[in-house]
Amino acid sequence: MFKRKPEKKLSEEKKAHRLNVDELKEQLQAELEACSDLNFRTLKKDGKKIVFCFLSSLIDKSSLDEYILLPVQQNTQVAWTTENISQILPIAEISGTNQLKEIVSSLIEGKTYIYIDGEPYGILANIGKTVERSLEKAETESLVYGPKISFTESLIGNLNIIRSNLKDPKLCMEDISIGKRVRTPGKLVYLKDIADEENVNTFRQRILDLEYDYIPDTTVLGQLIEDNSWTVFPQIMSSELPDRISQSLMSGRVAVLMDRSPAAIYGPTPFFSFFESTEDVYMRWNMALFLRMLRLTAIFLSVLLSPAYVAVLTFHYEVIPSALLISLGQSRANVPFPPVLEALLLEFVIELLREAGARLPTKVGQTMGIVGGIVIGQAAVSAGFTSNILIIIIALSALGSFTSPSYLMGTAIRIIRFPIIILAGIWGGIGIMLAFCFLLIHLLKLTSLGRPYLMPVYPFSWKDLGYSFFKFPPQFSSRRPVTNNTVDNKRFTKQKGLEKKDVDE
């Protein structure tokens, strides 16, 4: 209830009371003493006062004048009561309250509180002013085919895009409040007759159990609710593409959006989902199959090439062909470092160039990456710090890690190369096998929202291989992925999908 003087103390029940305008001002000023933009506008008629409370930096002042102050002043024949005022306000989103905590949080959200002397409760009117950017192309997920529009920082705008993509009455958008001290509005989004209730409950419960005072973005939220925070591998996918979120919802996954966040997270997302691109859906199935296999092969080679170079030159010269061995020996004749130190040094330089290019302005960053790579690489070879062959191997490894559609997974692949290179320098091929065994065991133990991380390889599912490793013609994908445990797992009737009908039929 409103805080009041002891002699006017109210019971815990929500009963009518006679709080005056001056008392309300005192209480709000005490609660929002740090807010210098707290303003009050008071009007008086027939000895009765009405006060309008708002934070000037958060409201649209023209809306305050046109939709609140002007209607109240013009309707001189209407008695000032909460019910009458709520009827004359041309505002869609209004509500009544007499709870001080709710009033304070609403003022911080950009609402205006209207209170009349002696009334049991007041009116909250939403005339908040939001700063939004226009719809633009995605920056972190580039596409050749398919819609290229990306999310913005507006929760309402992002929900509008998803609604436009999925005009389904079963599309459910639950309100959730994220954070304890700074409560950021969010939405839990899923298709009610498709998504597994266990996945929905897991997402909802983990968010509600968070005790963090402030969560600024969905990417931070994803880290807080994922199953294992110690691993380098992401277990919840983040995307700024509405089309990717729409496809994930149709396959039975659950998504979360936050206000002021330009990306959404969704899950469960197994390991192989991070190598699927949105444009795979829009390309011919055989082209999409080729590109998907190319990505997986590139990632494998990205992890293996540098450690293999170190292991071969350190312990296994016999596996190198004689012709290549001569040129390799000549290339490394002036290199003073052992292969493991040489590889680590060059990997570090590549990561340094990549990070510097990402932090610089776009045009300068591109120039830095190209010119810096060429100049530093040529200078390193000329100075005898590294060999030409290792330059080629490191470049191929870097290119392979960049093929991942997920930035987080690409970064994880680049990180795990360093310990594998060290093990290869210590034990050679045995060290590489040891690293891969440890990596496989680690991936087998991981889960995404309680689901196995290596689905559909473990547990194995023939039916879902076409959604991870392979890509089949669309008429053969009549059912949704089994691993998502969907309620309605049928997309269309397989026999109808295989029929070919002409116009005259």
Word description of this protein:
The chain contains 16 helices and 12 strands. By secondary structure, the chain is of the alpha+beta class. It folds into 3 domains: 6-126, no CATH class; 155-280, no CATH class; 298-452, no CATH class. The chain has a 5-stranded antiparallel β-sheet with strand order 1-2-4-5-3, with helices on one face. It has a 5-stranded antiparallel β-sheet with strand order 6-7-9-10-8, with helices on both faces. Helix 5 crosses helix 8, helix 9 (285-315) packs parallel to helix 14 and helix 14 (407-427) runs antiparallel to helix 15. Mean pLDDT is 84; it is low at 1-17.
Output the keywords.
12 strands, 5-stranded antiparallel β-sheet, 12% strand, single chain, elongated, alpha+beta, 16 helices, 505 residues, disordered N terminus, 3 domains
Write the SSE topology:
Layout: H1 21-31, E1 38-45, E2 48-55, H2 61-74, H3 82-88, E3 94-97, H4 100-108, E4 111-116, E5 122-126, H5 155-165, E6 171-178, E7 184-191, H6 197-208, H7 218-225, E8 237-239, H8 242-250, E9 254-258, E10 264-267, H9 285-315, H10 322-331, H11 339-359, H12 362-382, H13 388-402, H14 407-427, H15 429-445, E11 447-448, E12 451-452, H16 494-498
Antiparallel strand pairs: 1-2, 2-4, 3-5, 4-5, 6-7, 7-9, 8-10, 9-10, 11-12
Helix pairs in contact: 5-8, 9-13, 9-14, 11-12, 11-13, 11-14, 14-15
